[in-house]
Amino acid sequence: MAQNISGTHETINLGKRALVTGASSGLGVDFADLLAAQGVDLVLVARRQDPMETLAERLRLQHGVDVIVEPFDLASSGAAGRLRERLDARSLQIDILVNNAGYGLHGDFLDIPIERTADMIQLNITALTELSYMFGAAMAERGNGHILLVSSILAFQPVPTYAAYAATKAYVLSFGEALHDELRSRGVKVTVLCPGHTETGFDAVAGASVSTALRMLTMQPRPVVQSGLSALWKGKASITAGIMNKIVVFSNRLMPRSMQRAAMKKVLGP
């Protein structure tokens, strides 16, 4: 029988199962670790199998949870549907969806091959939307479930040198907050997590260097993930991780958009 554990305003049922995308590195590892520590069984999804297998074995030994590894490229067309079919074939019910997979591309829009930008949009927007629909529909039918969407503080303003990436995260923020209101009455909690710059290897994938100002704002993954899960259990619409990031987001309300763009280019540009 499922039991409950509680701590610092967090309550979750042991024996439920979470699907964590982007689980081979970065925030995904910490999401898996903290959920497993709360007795949640897991499905780990990412392209790279070996890091997930290593993580899965550690979580099984440390926390006694069931962990299934699904190597999957969610950036490919129709990937979300194929993943759902594979889980259905194993009769796996997903109670918690952590839509964490995503990456950025740094540089002027016209200097980045459009194929790379299209792949990023496929993962950051299309796959996230399809997964939210497929698993969200099942949760709503049961009258219970949790969905966490990972956005970014770049969602709050236009960002030169991250034009397309920031736009994808603005979509995630708007989409997730709207779903929060739509699904609340059907028993499904939806929360958007907006991290700032985090020590995850994001910059290496994006092809970006880290400025001194940005380095001062950098957070470690664990407190970012903790804030996201805590907000999810509380049923918040969205959460910005970290005091300094909250200040950055609030300051946007006081600046004209031209000033926002200039500030972002100075901090994040070449």
Automatic annotation (TrEMBL):
Keyword tags: Oxidoreductase
Pfam families according to UniProt: adh_short
Hydrolase found in the keyword field: no
InterPro entries: NAD(P)-bd_dom_sf, Sc_DH/Rdtase_CS, SDR_fam
Keyword Lipid biosynthesis found: no
Family: Belongs to the short-chain dehydrogenases/reductases (SDR) family.
Name of the molecule in the record: SDR family oxidoreductase
Organism: Gluconobacter cadivus
